[in-house]
Amino acid sequence: MRKNLLLSSIVALFFSVPSIAETVNFPEEIVPLQVGDKKIEHSFFNRVDEVELTPGVYQFKLKYTDLYEQGYDDHQVIDSEPFWVTMTIAANTDYDVVFNRADNAVAAKVFAEAPQVSLQVKGESLGIPLAIIPEPNLSSGAVSPVATAAAAASTTAIASATTAQAPVSRPASNAPNAAAMLDFWWQQASAQEQQAFIDKVTKSK
Question: Which pTM value belongs to this model?
Fold first, then answer.
């Protein structure tokens, strides 16, 4: 009984932790290729159809690809060129990328020439059309914020908003104490090495 109570408490604590990212879901025909300057890796067996982002404004590189049956045992793949859109992600809101799928391959080819997708808040019936933008100059650092996207071994790519400022590197909690390491190596050094170290420290002041 006590074990069950402890397990229930752990599960409740896990689900009570607030989510720090919002989810953008993509239909099978709209493939996310890149978020900011970070590419999203897909594989044949593992296609990314979700991206998690912290609130902010993001530049997405997308591609339209669709499959249409052509007779009994034949099909045709319709692809668009990659295109860029801007998405604004609000806090505590999940989204679906939606589009009007063509009824046939001929109409799909027309759509592929000028794809149009919308960003729809999950649970709502109307989406906001996303205008296609020129490819951003990501090397200039002018895009802010930029998403750091990493496709995991699942259908989810996790992304976190960053700015042009370099991330702060934090030492591991189990890193050895610098003073203790200095004392250790001092004890290992010869008298000549100790004197050479003293001379180096003295000169650097």
Answer: 0.59
CA distance 184 to 47: 51
Is residue 146 a contact partner of residue 36, using CB atoms and an 8 Å limit? Answer: yes
pLDDT tens by residue, 111-124: 999 999 999 999 99
Helix%, strand%, coil% for the chain, nearest 5: 25, 35, 40
Q: What is the dihedral of CA 91, 94, 99, 103, to 10 degrees?
A: -170
pLDDT band at 143 (very low <50, low <70, confident <90, very high): very low
- Classify 17 as helix, strand or coil: coil
For residue 63, the SS3 value is strand
Output phi, psi for 87, to 5 deg.
Answer: -120, 135
- Tell me, what's the pLDDT at 11? 37
Cβ–Cβ < 8 Å for 32, 48:
yes
